[in-house]
Design a protein that fits this description.
Layout lengths: L9 H8 L29 H12 L4 E5 L6 H15 L5 E5 L2 H13 L6 E4 L10 H6 E3 L3 H6 L11 E5 H5 L4 H6 L4 E5 L10 H6 L6 E6 L22 H4 L2 E3 L2 E2 L4 H11 L4 E2 L10 E5 L6 E2 L16 E2 L1 H15 L4 E4 L3 H13 L7 E2 L1 H4 L4 E7 L12 H8 L2 E9 L1 H5 L6 H9 L6 E3 H5 L10
Parallel strand pairs: 1-7, 1-8, 2-5, 2-6, 3-4, 3-5, 6-7, 9-10, 11-17, 11-18, 14-15, 14-16, 16-17
Antiparallel strand pairs: 12-13
Keywords: ATP-binding, Helicase, Hydrolase, Nucleotide-binding
GO molecular function: 5'-3' DNA helicase activity; ATP binding; hydrolase activity
Protein name: Putative ATP-dependent RNA helicase ECM32
Length: about 450
């Protein structure tokens, strides 16, 4: 798609060519004029959340960037923005999209939680077989059902549904063509925009060039960047574009992370965010399980593999995997728990051990699959004991360390994390709490069920 194809498309010219659009847009006061009693906007929104929603609904520019660090309520703002936009534009149609299906489902949960506008989730066939709540199942439309339900008039009853949630790949496909021909969107909201290559927007920006008035990008540039951005020049996100950051809003209050963890990570970043959380003591929210005898393995070999052979090999740590499984089995089998580890080999190994212990295996994630998600308890398997590996990737580390709503448990070798890895984000976090008695727990105590760990009711 060449530069000439963007002519006459204000959004494409603004995003890709840095040219201000000529289209005149009507100014709207998004938050203060929401009148519909059927739409509930969260009453306890912070001033920065209200400003973000208002900036988008006001439509004073073609794009808005909302920078939301972990736990600052990005999905809450998305719901409020959608409600405000629809209440002021009674013929509008809004698309909320993201790169991953997990992020799409998180947006859907936020719409249900906050009693937002009616919506439908357009998803691939296999997603409809996932374990979903009854409320979510009612909103789900699989790709194979779109055509018959649309033709029967059962997809959008009485015009009440004016919001569609889907992945960007689904949005760019021709499957939804009949819907968009009849209901062209005038607002598109992109969640996790930091993880999306800017060029991926060109297809739908061209497709909806006659109806689209505004695109709002939500994300955190300190988290995952677009795939291959570190190895291929020119792969960047909208947060890397200075001209787009001019129309930006920072969400400056964190709600998800327990205060001790939030302050430690913010201090490592040099950020000055505000925090609000019910957990204020480190004893209730963070532990380090010291697996001092574990070693990372490379492609089935021991840690003695020559350093020049590390690149591209498979990483796993058997003793860590065994400790993680016993953590779940002895302490958190009935809790909302997620296991995060960076390497596929370690995830498969943990899944195999969980299965042999008759424990659920669907709670294991990587940084890529868990971005935008959260859990009460997060167990993080470090794997590394002699090489830094992914620990040098601050964006992936940020995702892994900021998903816990109540308790973060790090499983690794303490002397390695506090020593060789001390300058990483993980090392900075661990060394902040190393001074406290009880922060570090020996892995053998976990195996025997004698460790003193926070238990969540």
């Amino acid at each position: 798609m060449g530069r000439d194809s963007f002519r006459g498309n204000d959004l494409c010219e603004w995003i890709y060519l840095q040219k201000e659009g000529s289209t005149k847009v009507e100014l709207l006061d998004g938050i203060s004029r929401v009148k519909s009693p059927s739409i509930s906007i969260p009453a306890l929104m912070s001033s920065c959340q209200r400003r973000a929603a208002k900036e988008i609904a006001a439509c004073r520019s073609l794009t808005t960037l909302v920078h939301g660090p972990p736990g600052t309520g990005k999905t809450t703002v998305i719901v409020a923005t959608t409600a405000a936009w629809l209440s002021l534009n009674f013929k509008s149609f809004v698309l909320c999209v993201s790169q991953s299906s997990i992020a799409v489902m998180n947006m859907a949960e936020a719409f249900l939680k906050h009693n937002g506008p009616d919506f439908r989730i357009i998803a691939l066939q296999e997603l409809s077989n996932e374990h979903l709540s009854e409320g979510m199942k009612e909103k789900l439309v699989s790709s194979s059902d779109i055509a018959p339900r649309f033709l029967d008039g059962n997809l959008f009853k009485d015009g009440a549904t004016r919001v569609i949630l889907s992945t960007i790949s689904m949005l760019n496909s021709d499957i939804l063509g009949p819907i968009y021909d009849r209901y062209p969107p005038d607002l598109i909201i992109v969640d996790e925009a930091n993880h999306v290559f800017t060029g991926d927007y060109a297809v739908f920006l061209q497709k909806f060039r006659r109806s689209l008035r505004h695109v709002a990008f939500f994300g955190d540039p300190m988290q995952l960047s677009p795939h291959a951005s570190e190895t291929i020049r020119g792969v960047y996100s909208v947060f890397d574009e200075k001209h787009l950051r001019r129309n930006g809003v920072l969400l400056d209050t964190s709600y998800r992370l327990p205060l001790p963890i939030a302050k430690a990570i913010s201090s490592a970043y040099g950020e000055s965010l505000k925090y609000t959380h019910e957990i204020t003591s480190w004893r209730d929210c963070i532990r380090f399980i010291d697996v001092d005898s574990g070693f990372e393995e490379k492609q089935g070999q021991s840690h003695k593999v020559p350093r020049q052979c590390y690149i591209g090999l498979i990483e796993q740590n058997h003793l860590e995997a065994m400790t993680v499984v016993q953590l779940v089995n002895n302490y958190y089998a009935n809790s909302n728990c997620a296991i995060i580890t960076p390497y596929k080999a370690q995830r498969l190994h943990i899944a195999d051990l969980l299965d042999k212990s008759n424990l659920a295996t669907r709670c294991i994630y990587s940084a890529d699959t868990f971005q935008g998600y959260e859990a009460d308890i997060v167990i993080f398997s470090v794997v590394h004991t002699v090489s830094l590996g992914f620990l040098c990737d601050i964006r992936k580390l940020t995702v892994m360390l900021t998903r816990a709503k109540k308790l973060l448990i790090i499983v690794g070798m303490r002397r390695f994390v506090s020593g060789m890895a001390r300058k990483t984000l993980l090392g900075s976090l661990v060394n902040r709490f190393n001074q406290f008695n009880g922060f570090s727990v020996d892995w053998k105590e976990v195996l025997h069920g004698k460790a003193r760990l926070p238990l969540l009711l």
